[in-house]
Design a protein that fits this description.
mainly alpha; 62% helix
């Protein structure tokens, strides 16, 4: 190895190492701070928005439910699932007679 190759390899190692270190520091800084139980003062839950909903459910839980999704929504979900399965490699390049047998009477 010549001197230039050694310098290039060392520069490459320094670049890769520094990029890994920078990514590690970003990951560590993005994590939430760990709470020290001794310093934690506690916070109350604001139940003013929650209380009417709970009372509504207690009175009539069927009325408090969200309305069911309509038939078009379910058909669209089934169509999306059908397309996703059809794109799998297992279903590509199949002979037409296999497809006809699968959809037979």
């Amino acid at each position: 190895m010549s001197g230039a190759e050694i310098i290039l390899w060392l520069a490459l190692v320094v670049l890769v190492g520094s990029s890994l270190y920078i990514k590690h520091r970003q990951r560590v800084r993005s994590q939430p701070e760990r709470y020290d139980p001794a310093k934690w003062t506690g916070k109350a839950i604001d139940v003013t928005q929650l209380k009417p909903k709970v009372e509504n459910v207690r009175r009539n839980y069927l009325a408090a439910r969200q309305p069911p999704k309509d038939l078009c929504f379910r058909r669209a979900l089934i169509e999306m699932a059908r397309r996703a399965v059809a794109q799998l490699a297992y279903f590509h390049d199949r002979a037409p007679e296999h497809q006809a047998q699968a959809h037979g009477p």
